[in-house]
Structures are given as C-alpha cells and as structure tokens.
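[step 3/7] fold_predict: job queued, chain A
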Amino acid sequence: MGKEIVLRRVRGMKMLALAGAAVITLGMTACGGTDDDGSDGGSGSNDKTVKVGLAFDIGGRGDKSFNDAAALGLDNAMKELKIEAKDLEAAANESENDKFERLKLLCTGGYNPVIAVGFVYAGADPKTGPLAKAAQECPDTKFAIIDDQSVTAPNVTGLVFAEEQGSFLVGAAAALKTKTGTVGFVGGCDVPLIHKFEAGFKAGAAAAKAGTKVLSNYLSTPADKCSGFNDPAKGETQATGMYDQGADVVYQAAGGSGSGVFKAAKAKGKWAIGVDSDQYNTVQADLKDVIITSMLKRVDVAVYNFIKDQAAGKFTAGKVVFDLKAEGVGYSTSGGKIDDIKAQLDKYKADIIAGTIKVPEA
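[step 4/7] structure written:
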C-alpha cells in the first residue's frame, strides 16, 4: 500500500550482452549485511556489504531471456557495490510452498534484500501466497517481486513494466516488415501479464498497417503451472503452425520457449521477434539472422536500481513502474533489419510518451 512511483529517468546503465553467465553463489561471511537502516551513508557507499538473495523463476540463469535479465541487474550491481549474493532456481511443477521455502531460506540466511523473479511468487492468492508469507515471517527483510503489484505489505515493492508499450512498437515493426500481411504471437502462459504483450502487439500492428492479421496462441495455463515458459519444443511447434498459416513474423513472449520459436523461423525461412533482452545478442549464432528486433523489458535496470537503493537505505513499499518514458521498455535494433523503419517506430514511441497514443493492456 506504499505510494505508486513512476521512475522518470534511468541513469548509469549500459546495455550489456547476456552470455555464458554462471550461477553466482558467493561464500557467506560474517557481516552486518542484514542491517537495512542505511546508516552507512549514501548510494554507492563501499562501507557496507549488502547480502542480496535472488529467487529465480523456472529456467534460472541461462534462459537467455527473463531470468538472465534479472541476473544481469544483480551482476551490474556487484560491479559497483560490495555485495554478497545467493541465487536459487525454481523447479518445474513445484508447489507454492516450495516457492515460499526458497524465499524463507534466503531471508533467514541473512540476505536482505530478497528479490523474487516472476509473478508466480505472488501465488494464486496474493494475500496468502509465497511472498506474502515470507514477508510476514521476515518482517525486517525488504522484498521485491518482478512483474507483480498484488502483494501489499510494508516490506514489499512490486517492480512492474509497461509491456504493452514496448509490444506496441514491435507490433508496428512486424506489420511494417511483413510481406504476407499475417504475423503471429506466441505467449508462454495464458495470464493477464502476457495478455499485455499480446494487446500491445496487436494494437501496434493495427496502427502501422490496418488489416494486418495476427495469429495468437498460448503454450500453457496456470493449471499446468505455466510450463510453457520452459518448453522450447512446444514453442517450435506452435510457431511452425503459424508460419504454415501464412505468418512471416512471429513475436514470442514465452521465456525459455522462445528458442523454439527462433528454430521454427530458421527452418521456415521466416522472421521472429525476441523479448525481454536483446535476443539477437544472446541466441546461438545460426539463429541471429531470423531476429528482426526484440521487445526490451529492462528487468536488469529494475533489479539494479532496487539493490542500489537498498544499499543507500532507501525503500518504499508499493508499485514502481518502468515504462517508455522511464526507458523501462523499448525495442532493439541489433542486426540492422529495422533500420529502414526506425524513424516510424520512434514517432510511435514519442506519441505514446506524450499520451497521444493510449496502448491497451488487455
């Protein structure tokens, strides 16, 4: 129930390639890392070691997408601050209690802050789910959760994004580049968060070229624990079906399953759009040429800023929004395939920031 904050400026961050990252598990040392009163001074102070716990979603480090973006934020913070870090990965088909135990293990181990990567840590009922329980049992620990704003506790911050705005831009790119007039969207799980990606993508495609047909499909539902975020084979099958139906550009918001979409694009001689990070820079070399752009979701910036604020003793519970104006979302230009339409996309970006274009979320 903390006040809503919209970040207006993001500084000091550079886009870095996500490649070959290893799990960071630093040895625990006797220190005052659990002290969060900020008495050591301002941001960037080297007098205090911050013990940061990161609880990944399924796929963990190495998914070349969502989890890796969170890991990059931690890695960047470690270059600037004195940090001890421990990250733990979720397992497929685990229970909500397993997620709670992971968060509890980190907070009782003295890690503060603890960052939950993914809305799944909110649980089916955000009042009694994994994060709410952990926040209640560890009241002195500051928590953050990526992609959720439903957990309202005095020691929880929800780091959320305007995914629909970034998706609008890549939807416009898809419509401007398609030769068949048909494009596709593959979502990892049929949940409101991923609906934002689809809604923005469709709106952008319609704005750029009226009549563009958008094929949509989801790889999983909450009933099967959103397994579609880590099923490349299913991603490849769904994308192949869309290419067979005439799509020549497919946008995936499917986490680790996105690699399957890229493989399908390669096999069919078509194009694809990445998500979260600049996936042109993270996929295997033979798949680079199928990626025309990626919808950038700066999870790395959100994680970095949260850790840096915590090191400075700054914490405000509630929702923090990363939108186009805050450079929290955007699109990539690696590979040069959309250089010819960049001016048009930037015009859409300016109109969204100005409020001239209102992008739907559902």
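[step 5/7] annotate
Residues 192-208 form the longest helix (17 residues).
Confidence is low (pLDDT under 50) at residues 1-46.
exit 0
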